[in-house]
Structures are given as structure tokens and as C-alpha cells.
Amino acid sequence: MFPSARARAEETAEKGVFRLHKFEQPIGQESYAIKKEGDELQLSVSFHFNDRGEDVPLSAFVRLSKDLTPRSMEIHGDMARNTPIDDSVLVEKDRILVRKNEKWHAFDRPEQFFGISTYAPVALQMMLVRKWQAAGRPKKMQTFPAGVLSIEDRGADDFFLKGTKVTLERFSISDLAWGRETLWLDAQNQLVALITVDGEYDHFEGVKPEYEDNLGNFVQRAAADEMAALSAISKDFRHDNSHGSLALVGANLIDGTGAPALNDSSVVIQDGKIVSVGPRGKVKLPKDAQIVDLTGKTIIPGLWDMHAHFEQVEWGPVYLAAGVTTVRDCGNEFEFITAVRDAINSGHGVGPRLLLAGIVDGSGPFALGVARVDTPEQAREWVRRYHDAGFEQIKIYSSVKKENLEVVAAEAHRFGMTVTGHVPEGMTTFDGVNAGMDQINHIGYVVGMMDPATSGRGRGGDPQKRLAALRNFDPNSEESRKALQFLKAHNTVIDPTLTVFEMFMRTGNRPFESLEPGVAKVAPALSTQLRNVGPGAAGAELGEARFAVSLKTVGALHRAGIPIVVGTDQTVPGHSVHREMELYVEAGFTPVEALQSATIVSARAMRLDKEVGTIEPGKRADLVVLGANPLDNISNIRKTERVMQAGVFYDCASLWKSVDFRP
Questions:
Q1: Which range among 73-82, 287-296, 381-390 shows the weakest confidence by mean pLDDT?
Q2: What does the domain layout of the chain look like in residue ranges?
């Protein structure tokens, strides 16, 4: 229980404020106070932000002994949109009682431990580091209810505060959330900045107000440090064959062109490029080639995820383990994603090739990020900035005005960039494409143009009327045909992201794991969250109807010859690329067509089909070795054993394990 006002009115030993940011956009504030009462310290925290129109409040109260050993902890509220938290910890002499979501559990009391649940509140992470320091900086730290985590001192960094150089100590925390967090403490051991992800696994930052001008610098340094730490262990799963010759012999080859599979093939790779492909007996192998016998295996082109938000460096090994060698990032923090891309490109990071779509939005209650295009001048400025930084695309978000979208698209096209994204509020998909959008993210925007009555746009509407419209949806109606003809005439590329909609629509009356077996293999820090998704029983009927229409629409798009690319919008890291392909087969694709959506069709959409996307001489050596043939069963796409990116071979099982996933 929370203490009375009188009990909390003791001597204040420390207090502070953190500004809270998502995608570097200020969205709220956390205030904390540490008070002395008798022989203990009491930490009270008030945490609140508003994310795209939704309030996220959280309160915490923690009692600690003077050596920072917890006596009790209470955390109540939300840690992200639609992500409630209600945790209690009570420490007794020989045991620790933990309550999560109304259920109590008892644990033996270890010698050293701390009480913490998740990334929030920020001040509690500061106290965690202090406890770790007081305990002698152990390699592992037991926490309740979060589990075992590790903290590492990563050195010192210099920043400038009002023109004065300030040295801050950098720390990393692993396994509180999935992956690594980075935080800085000052000379007084007070936390200055935290770079992490929130309950939706989106970028999240807490920073002292006086250091806000350094936020981009904090983000960039965190990305570089986290990538360096990951790269340091890459010797365990990386085999660099990018220089010299390598011959893959004996495998069943699916080259991605649509040609029949080739049994007992040879693929010769030299200096990161494919130099020859054909039947084993007809391909001449270089004398110095290292020969890899893949008899009984299947080789396919490297897969693509065309709707990623690469928000943690841990996504790199996960993607490679899943056979994904190219990723289009559909909106990220500028400093983070450019640092990660540059590290990978220079050979100092681990991950797929990154193609970047720079996000822009207009001002409003549902805006995201800091790239505002409220005027034509701002629109041109942001497009130029993204272009000059090597971005391939512009990503439109939901609050951009039509007149500014037109300027963004025209400027992007002038620079040879393409435009993808959401259809902004107040516009139809017809409007967005006519304004210059080359590609559309999310199938809902296509469903809405085929039958506006099915749309849930505007954050309102009668659910029963919508349910009736969904049940009556006809992909062959005159209105549907007009929409399909329009998209076909404009060569519009569609990125449906069925997996993310399945997660939120089809899980009302069934566990997500029954649809996506990859849930059982994710890191423990992700597992609970992924098992507690969906509309609940009350929303199950509408959710199932929405998803059924989404599948029908993808099938109609495919039959109409409209380009469809595989994209996940995160969902289950790595595994959802495979699930998206399975869903395309469910929608009417053949297995080879689903494979092409994840390879050559995606490469063509990004104007890279001459370089990558199929296994042909002259192309980049991006390929995957599978334990079974996906043309027999598309789910065999999950049986990744090795992956090659630009001639560098990786062991998939080791990649999974490196980020705490099960192979």
C-alpha cells in the first residue's frame, strides 16, 4: 500500500525530474523524490506521458534500507499504451513475496537483489545502478520480479552543458527489457539520461531537462556502444568468406526467378558476389574454392522485411537468424538508425543491410517523432536532410496535410527517392496516391478504399455497423474493382503487415502462440508481453471479421497483379517474416510467389533488383540455407540453418542464442 501523507512528509534527501521522449519527441515527465524516514529511504515516483492521444500514467513507491536493499515496492499504472502494470514486492526475513497481476508468488531471499519490473520508472533504474555499485558490481544481479540482469560500466563520455564540458559515466543494463539499455550518471551519481525501449518496443528516452539539447548525441552514442558490444561477440557465429572463393554444392536451389528448383546444384561465390550457378556437374569450381557440402539442404535468396522498425541492435542477429538479409526501416530516430546502418556497412556491426525510410509527420495530437512538415519549406528541408544522409525513401505518417504531402513527394521524386507510409487522417488512399505516394503501408488503407464502410478511421464509429460491413465485404464489387484498377494503374506497392494485425485481431479467443509458434522461442523478457496481446473476448468477433477481410483483400490485390511485399511492423522479432509468408499462402499465393514477395518483388520495389533478390551471377551473395524445402510447405521457411550476407556466412542457431532466443 502507498504510505500516508504524514509518513511521506519526512526529510527529502534527493529529488529530480526527467523529461520523457518517444522517438525523441517530448511526451511527458517523471518526477521523483527520495526521503529519509528512520533507518530507511523512500523513493516515490510520478510518471506520466501522452502518446498519440493516449495517457500513460504510472506511480511507484519503494522502501529501501540504507544499503539500498529493498524492503517493499509498489508499481501501478501503465508502462505504455494498453500495457498495464500492477506489481508489488514485499521482502521478509527469509523470503520475497512478489505480486504480478493479482497473483502472489514466494521466492527464497538471495544475498543481493533489487526490486524492479521494467524500464519505467526511470528513477528506479538509477537506484538499481546504485545498488549494483554498493553490492560490489556483481556480474549478475537478481531482481524481483524482472529476473536476473547484468550491468556493465562502459566508460566515460564528454558532453557540453551550456558551453561547459561535463564528463558522464556510461552504463549498460541487459535483460531488464529485451536487449541492452544505455544510461549515464553524473559525478553525483545521479542519472542524467536513459536510452531504452518502452512497452511497445519503441524508442524511449528519459533525460534531465538541462541535458535535453544533448538528446540526439545520447541516442547516437548509445547506438554505437550497443553495436560495438554486439560486434565483439560476433566471432561466435560469423564466418567471413567475403574475400576468396566459396562453393556451395549439392543443395536443392530455389533461385527466386520463378524457374523450377534445381537439384544437386552448385553456387560459386567470390568476394561477396555470386559468380556462377548451375547443376553441380556443369559448374567449374575455382581451384582455391572452399567447398561446403549442402546435400539434402535447400538454398533460397536472402529474405527481406519491408516494414521494420529497427529500434534495438539486437534486431540485427535476430533478422539474420531468420534468414533476413535486407530490411527496410519504416521510421526511426535519425541519430540511432544512421549510426546502426553505418556500423553494419563498415563491418563493425551485426545485422542485415538497412534501407532507410525517413519519417515525417505534421503537428497534432497524434503526431509521432520530431520531423515536422507543417509548411512547404519544412517539407523540402526534411526531404533534403534525409536524402543527404543516404536514406532511400520518405515515410509519411498520419498527421501530414495533403498540400504538404504533395511537396514532400515532389521533392523526394526530384532526388530520386520514393514515398511510402500511412494515408494521413482526412485523406483517402486515392488522395494519397494522387498526391505522390508510391507505396502504402498496412492493408487497412486498401480495405477502406474498396469499401469505406469497413474503415475504423477517425477513432470512433459504431462497431456493430462496422461488423455488418465487414461481413458483407465483397472484393469483387464494382467499388473494389475500381480501387484495384487505380492501384494497378499507378503501380502502387502494398506492404500489408498482416502479422501485426493478426496479433491484435485474431487473439480474442485463442493464444497468440497457437498462430505464431515463434512466440515460444523469444527471449524471456519478450515472452510475457507477446502472450498478453489481442482484443480480448469482447473484441474477438470484430477482430476475426477484420482479419478475414484483410486476407481477402491481399488475395484480391495479388490476383490483380499489384506488387505485394513482405513486411512485419515488428510483431515477433524474426519469426513474423515467416508468418507473413504463411499468411500470403493462406490468401492464395503459391509458395514460390510468397517467397518472391519476400525477395525479388521487394528488391524491385526498392529499385535494387539488378543487384539482389535472386540467386544469379553478378548479384550480391545474400542467401539462406534451409533444412527443408519451402515449396513443399511454406512453413519450412522457418528451418533456417545458415545465412549469408554479402559473402559472410553465419550460423543461425548461434545468432538466435546471442540475443537470448531459442533456435
A1: 73-82
A2: 15-232, 300-658
